[in-house]
Each structure stands twice: as structure tokens, then as C-alpha cells.
Amino acid sequence: MAEAEAHKPARRASDPWPPVRPGVGAWWRDHVRIARETAHFISARLGTSLLVWLLVGIALALPAGLYLIQQNLAAMTAAWDGRPGLTAYFDLDASQPAIDAVRSHLEADERVVAVSVTDPESALDEFRRFADLADALDLLDTNPLPASLRATLATEVDLGALTALTSEVSRLEGVSEVVVEKTWLERVSDITAVVSRLGVILGVLFGVGAVLVTSTSVRLAIEARLEELKVLKLIGATERQMRRPFLYFGAFYGLGGGLIAAMLISLCLVIVEAPLSSLLGSYSQELDLVGFDPLFLGSLLLVGGVLGVLGALLAATSRLKDLEIL
């Protein structure tokens, strides 16, 4: 019996440090713990967090708002039935047969869908209604305004065909000048291109601003936990492990900024809805805003989160690299 007791292995004392269980479960639990601690740290400093969210939200709202404007202008352009046209002004002494000949020539052209002629008397009456020179016109012995012809082109006519038709009409007898009239549809297309490019430029600039704001905020959070980071480095924590909580800071700041940006854009849409509806109603169009949908909101949050993580990565990498234990 004594010999059996001697060969029995000694019982190990209980280990005060529980073993680390590696694997996906441990990785997930660590991330959940860090996210919970980050949320607690941000909520404990709610005033500073709201300020960061507001700054990031404003930086995201302007380019995102320009994107919505560009999308709605493009939708209005696609739905509008306006057509390009040209106006031919005749010589003052142009005969009626010459005017009729130009009209017949354009009516026979398949590129033209409508032709209207304004005689000198009708032009003078219209000028009297819209100008403040009615008294001065009464002093003139003759009508100074020529006859004119307005031609509306088909929607599929491109700029090259319009230019060729303009050159053709200008060579006809009795025609003094041909003016190519660009409808507001073409102007809207130009404005859409400008807004699109401006949105890209401002998106880059304000994106950099959001990254810098987040980086500064995360840098302050690092300084607030500097002693804790020194202890972690002293016991052997890697730079990646020390950096991970601050990436969550950046993600929280970026997501909050994206949410604030969505709220600001929604507020702006509510403010401009009434006057915009009135403006479109004058053109027999209904207000139908496009682009502000769940996909847009999700993209806004995603962009905010990515910019926040980039700012946090910039701050944490530069600060932790020079961290010294003294």
C-alpha cells in the first residue's frame, strides 16, 4: 500500500491563471469585449463624441447631398420631354414667298417635328408686352422687328445633325440669322456634369477632413489610456492587440458620423420639398426624389465607418510606434 502511494502522481496545484482558449470563439469574445468597452468609453464622454459625430456628419453630408442632386437631375433629364430647336430670323425686306419657302423646306425635313412662323406685327405686339420700350416704339415710323421662324426638332436629333441643319437653313434665301436654341434640358445636363465633378472633388476633400477629425479624436483617446497601453506593452502585447480597441473607436465615430449625415440630408430634403414641388409643378412635373433609399443610407454608413477606421489606423500606428516604457 505504501509503495502504491509512493508511485501515485502528485496532484497539481490549481493554476491561478486560467488557460487561454484559442480559436474562433476566443477571437469573437475578444472583439465583443472590445466593442463593449469602446461603447462605454464613448458614452462616458458623450459631449465630445457628439461633436466628433457632427463634424464627420457634416463632412459626409455635403458630397452625399451633391450626389443626390446629381441623381435627381439625371432622372429629371431622362423624364423630361423637351426638344432642341432653332430660330431663323429673316431680313427686314424678306418677301412672303421666301418665308413660305423656308417653312416648306423645314416641314419637309424628317428631323423637324414642328414649325411656327411669327410675322413682324406679332413680334412687335409681343415685344410691347414684355419690354418697357412701348412709348419709344410708338415714335418709330416703321416696324424694326423682322419675321422669324421657330423649328422644333425630334428628340433623337444629336448635336451634329442640329449643326448641319443650322448651316443649311442659314443659306436659304431671305434668312438673316439662325440661332440654335438649347432647351433647359441641355442646360440641366451641363449642370448635372458640373455637380457630378464637384461632388467628386468635395467628396475627396471632405473625406480627408473626416479622416483627420477621426484621427485627432482617436489620438486623444490613446493619450487618455496611455498608462494602460504601457502596461500592455510591458507584459508582451503586440502592436496589433494594442491598436485593435482604437480601430473600434474610429468605426464608432465613423458610423455615428454617417448617421448624422443621413439625418442632415433628410432634414434638408424636408425643408426644400415644398418650394421644389411648386417649381416642378409650374412645369407640369411631379416631385419624385430618387436616390434616398436604404442602399444610399447603407453606403453612407459604410463610407463613414471606413473613413473612421482609416483615421484611427493613422493615429494608432503613428502613436504606438513611438510608445516607450519608462
Question: What this model shows, in words?
Answer:
With 326 residues, this protein is α+β, with helices and mostly antiparallel strands. The chain has 2 domains: 31-79 and 187-321, no CATH class; 85-182, Alpha-Beta Plaits. Helix content is 68%, strand content 8%. It contains 11 helices and 4 strands, in the order αααβαβααβαβαααα. It has helices at residues 2-7, 24-44, 46-79, 96-107, 120-130, 134-138, 159-170, 184-224, 226-234, 239-281, 294-321, and strands spanning 85-90, 112-118, 148-153, 175-181. The chain has a 4-stranded antiparallel beta sheet. Helix 8 (184-224) packs antiparallel against helix 10 and helix 10 (239-281) packs antiparallel against helix 11 (294-321). The longest helix has 43 residues, at 239-281. The model has no long low-confidence stretch (mean pLDDT 79).
